[in-house]
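Batch manifest, entry 17 of 40.
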Amino acid sequence: MKILVAADGSSHSQEVVDLLGRLRFPDHAEMEIISVLEHPVVYAGSHGIRDRVTEITQARQRQAAEDAVEETRKRLAGCQVKVTSSIHDGHPAEEILQRAETMPADLIVAGSRGLSALDRFLLGSTTERLLKHAHCDVLVSRPVAPSSEPALGERLRVMVAYDGSPAADGAIDDLVRLPIGAVAEVRIVTVLSLLKSFRMDILQHLSNEWAREKETAEKAALAAAAKLEAAGYDRVQVRIEESDDVAHHLIELAGSWPADVLMTGANGHSRIERFLLGSVSTRLTRHAPCAVWLTRDTDGND
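Output type: structure tokens
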């Protein structure tokens, strides 16, 4: 398993790196820390002044990048996997995506927003480009309140938004590969979409098709749970929910638990009415109260 960790020194990137320590990874996993320098263009002053300002700015940025990489390396010391690093020049999203392709990476890890000495290189727009264009999974941090810091020995809480699609199955496969079965608590949640306008939900509940759909959803979720249990997960729960707003319901469930990580497919395309459409996964990555792990079709059909 190859993981590309974007580091800019911001609190957001540090939070997601700390989460990596709780997730744990197989001994053969490899991590690369990447930091990107996006050099500003200086327009004011004479050529001599512009050149000098550019030189000073670039030197400061490079030092900040080196500091961010070193801090990230220290935070990853407990992961006990091979860790390398690289510093690139260019557009942050493009450089990260290109490096992820050439590795090739199984997972890109990034902060939801960068506010660092590197001129805020991980802006929300950059993170969204990673989520939209990466060929692999993307794990994005969310701000963590001081009161929500995990207690010593507390289990990692992972919620999987599951719809039976290849991308959702990819989330289960990712968990199978992680050696966290004994320290994690997993909730597999399927939310069936209700049509409440004109009280259409009443007709849905009375139809045989709805009963079959619910049965199919439950069987698929239970099969996913059995796969995790066979991989050593000793606390797996399945929940079948109903809502007229799937994304909002998932966000509320993640917050009320509370989850540490919400895993969701980049696209839903399953027999359960494709409940995880792209718009749903986008809302989850923007508004979930926890880190979001966006998974893609393991067969590359995302």
